[in-house]
Design brief:
There is one protein chain. The chain is mostly helical. Helices cover 77% and strands 0% of the residues. The chain is built from 19 helices and no strands. The protein is globular, with a radius of gyration of 22 Å. The two termini are 40 Å apart.
Length: 447
C-alpha cells in the first residue's frame, strides 16, 4: 500500500513541481527519491543505477535526433525560411481565413521537421497581424499555434517528429506504420479540430470579443516600436531582411519528409531520420546561403538547445526507470492489461496517462514503451497498429497545462495567460486527440 501511495504521490509531485516552474531535472530527481523511499528501494541504487540507466539510455538513443532536429530548426530560422513559409501561407489564404492560415503554416513546418519552438516564434508575429486585421480575439492565437504544431502533425504517419520515431525502435516498424487508419486519424483530428476552432472564434466574435493584446504583449510591442522609432530618429533604417523565395524555403522540408520515408525502407528508422535531417540542413544551408549570416552560430545555438531539450526529457525517463522498479508499478501494469476490451486499450491508456503526468509526449513514450512494448509484442498484436496507437496516445494528455510547449506558447510567445488562452487548447490538443486515440484502438482491433 505504501508503495502505491508513493508511486501516485511521486507522479503528482512531479506534475506539481513542473507546473510551479521548478526545473524538470530537479523535479524528476526529487520525485525519484520519493518513489524510491516509499517503494523500499535502496536510494543509492535508485539514483546511481536505475535513474542514470534510464537517463543515459534515452540520451544515447535519441540525442543525435534532438541535435540535428534543433540545428535544422535554427537553419530554417536563421535563413528566414520559416518566416517565408508562414508569410506565403497567410498571403495565399488572406486575413479572412486568419485562423486556418496560422494552423496551416504551423502544420507545414512541423510536419517538415522544424522544431516546435522555432515554429511558434516564427508564426506568431504573422498571426498577430492577421488576427488584428480580421479583428479576431488574440487569446485564440496560442490555440491555433499549438493545434497546428502538435495535435496531428507529430503523431501522423510519415512525420519526422520524435514522437513518431520512438515507437519504431520498440515495435520494429517504419515511420509510416499504421497504414490507412493512421492517416484517417490524423485527418480526423485536423478536420474536427479545425472546424471546432473556427466555431469557437466565430462564437467569441459574435459575443463582441475583439482583437486586444494582453498587457505583457502590448508592453513588448510598445518597446519594439520605441526601438524602431529611436533607430529612425538616429538616421537608421529598420530592416528585417529579405525573405528567401518560398520554393527554396520549402525544399528542405520536402527533403526531410521524402528522405526519411524512402530511406526507412532500407535501414533503421533512426538512421533514416539522421540522414533526412542532415539533408534538410545541407539543402537549407546551400540553397539559402546568402540569407544565412551566422552559420556557425546557428549550429552552436542548435546544439545548446538540443542539450537542454534532451536533458529535460532524459530526466523524466530516469524518473520512470526508478518508478518501474517498485512493486506497485507491476500492479498498475497488470491492471491495465486486464482492462476489458481490445488488447491495445491498456497500452493506449498507459501511454497517455504517463505522457499526461510528465507533461511530455516523448518522455512518456520513453518511460512506457521499454516496459510495455515487449509485453504486448509477445501477444502477437500487429506492431504497426501498436506504433500508431502509441503515437496517438502520446499526443493527448501530454498537452495538459504543465506541458513545456504549451507554457512557452501561452506565456513566452503570446504573452497570454492560461486563464484566457488554455481553454481552447484543452479541447483541441487534449480532448479531441484522446477521443480519436480510442477510436483508433477500436478500428485497429476490428480491421
Amino acid at each position: 500500500m505504501l508503495g502505491m501511495i508513493g508511486l501516485i504521490g511521486s507522479l503528482a509531485l512531479l506534475m506539481f513541481l513542473t507546473m510551479r516552474g521548478v526545473n524538470i531535472i530537479i523535479g524528476a530527481i526529487i520525485s525519484a527519491i520519493v518513489v524510491a523511499i516509499t517503494g523500499g528501494i535502496n536510494l543509492e541504487a535508485a539514483l546511481t543505477e536505475h535513474y542514470m540507466t534510464g537517463f543515459t539510455g534515452y540520451f544515447a538513443n535519441w540525442f543525435l535526433i534532438f541535435l540535428l532536429g534543433a540545428i535544422f530548426g535554427k537553419i530554417m530560422e536563421g535563413t528566414k525560411a520559416a518566416d517565408s513559409i508562414a508569410k506565403w501561407v497567410t498571403d495565399k489564404l488572406g486575413h479572412s481565413r486568419a485562423v486556418f492560415a496560422v494552423v496551416a503554416a504551423a502544420a507545414i513546418m512541423t510536419y517538415g521537421g522544424v522544431s516546435l519552438f522555432v515554429v511558434g516564434f516564427s508564426v506568431y508575429p504573422i498571426a498577430v497581424s492577421l488576427f488584428r486585421r480580421a479583428n479576431l480575439p488574440h487569446r485564440f492565437i496560442p490555440a491555433a499555434l499549438v493545434f497546428g504544431s502538435i495535435s496531428f502533425t507529430m503523431t501522423a504517419p510519415g512525420s519526422p517528429e520524435i514522437q513518431n520515431l520512438i515507437p519504431t525502435q520498440f515495435f520494429g516498424t517504419k515511420p509510416t506504420a499504421g497504414g490507412l487508419i493512421g492517416v484517417l486519424m490524423a485527418v480526423l483530428i485536423m478536420t474536427v479540430g479545425g472546424l471546432y476552432l473556427g466555431r469557437m472564434v466565430r462564437k467569441a466574435t459574435a459575443k463582441g470579443e475583439v482583437f486586444s493584446l494582453p498587457s505583457q504583449s502590448q508592453k513588448r510591442e510598445d518597446e519594439k516600436k520605441e526601438k524602431e522609432q529611436v533607430a529612425i530618429e538616429n538616421g537608421g533604417l529598420v530592416d528585417n531582411g529579405a525573405l528567401p523565395p518560398v520554393i527554396l524555403a520549402l525544399l528542405p522540408l520536402i527533403s526531410v519528409i521524402a528522405v526519411l520515408n524512402i530511406m526507412a525502407n532500407f535501414m533503421s528508422s533512426t538512421a533514416a531520420a539522421l540522414i533526412s535531417l542532415s539533408s534538410g540542413i545541407f539543402l537549407g544551408s546551400v540553397l539559402m546561403a546568402k540569407y544565412l549570416k551566422h552559420f556557425w552560430d546557428a549550429l552552436a545555438q542548435g546544439a545548446q538547445d538540443a542539450l537542454v531539450a534532451a536533458a529535460n526529457t532524459c530526466a523524466v525517463v530516469g524518473f520512470g526507470s526508478v518508478a518501474a522498479q517498485v512493486n506497485a508499478f507491476d500492479s498498475v501494469v497488470d491492471a491495465l492489461m486486464s482492462i476489458p476490451g481490445p488488447p491495445m486499450l491498456g497500452l493506449a491508456i498507459a501511454v497517455t496517462l504517463i505522457c499526461g503526468i510528465t507533461g511530455s509526449a516523448s518522455g512518456g513514450l520513453g518511460i512506457a514503451l521499454p516496459i510495455l512494448a515487449p509485453i504486448y509484442m509477445a501477444q502477437g498484436i500487429d506492431p504497426g497498429a501498436m506504433h500508431r496507437v502509441s503515437a496517438l496516445a502520446s499526443g493527448g494528455l501530454d498537452s495538459l497545462p504543465h506541458n513545456g510547449y504549451v507554457v512557452t506558447t501561452i506565456r513566452a510567445i503570446s504573452g497570454e495567460t492560461h486563464k484566457r488562452a488554455y481553454g481552447p487548447i484543452f479541447i483541441l490538443s487534449v480532448i479531441i486527440p484522446t477521443i480519436v486515440m480510442f477510436l483508433a484502438v477500436i478500428l485497429y482491433s476490428i480491421f
